[in-house]
């Protein structure tokens, strides 16, 4: 992946990417206080809400980038990995599978990974329909 696409290093300071960095801080803060649901839930919820805001803002400001797409999925996986690991003893297994899918898809399909499932099995196509924005994808 090239970080220098569309604006060089400036892309790292796009507002949606700054929101991504804030999400990383929120996820680690939630993990640090995971023993206290009163602290954990608001931090994790805010990180999840910001997940929708960064994509909307990227499109609104015209600040979409390969780096931003990669960062968004990275933070999503980091967030879910932490949650899976805290909720279930075998959560590491689900997390590992998600990371493998992330690495394989981004290395072969790049930023278009969400729209490249036309030859996948029917269930996968249903989950990924409309860029994974349907209820079944959630």
Automatic annotation (TrEMBL):
GO biological processes: phospholipid biosynthetic process
Stored Gene3D superfamilies: 1.20.120.1760
GO CC terms in record: membrane
Subcellular locations according to the entry: Membrane
MF annotations from Gene Ontology: phosphotransferase activity, for other substituted phosphate groups
Membrane topology label: Multi-pass membrane protein
InterPro entries referenced in this protein's UniProt entry, alphabetically: CDP-OH_P_trans, CDP-OH_PTrfase_TM_dom, CDP_ALCOHOL_P_TRANSF_CS
PROSITE patterns: CDP_ALCOHOL_P_TRANSF (PS00379)
Entry superkingdom: Eukaryota
Record field: transmembrane: 12-33
Keywords: Lipid biosynthesis, Lipid metabolism, Membrane, Phospholipid biosynthesis, Phospholipid metabolism, Transferase, Transmembrane, Transmembrane helix
Family: Belongs to the CDP-alcohol phosphatidyltransferase class-I family.
Protein name, entry field: CDP-diacylglycerol--inositol 3-phosphatidyltransferase
Gene responsible for this protein: si:ch1073-145m9.1
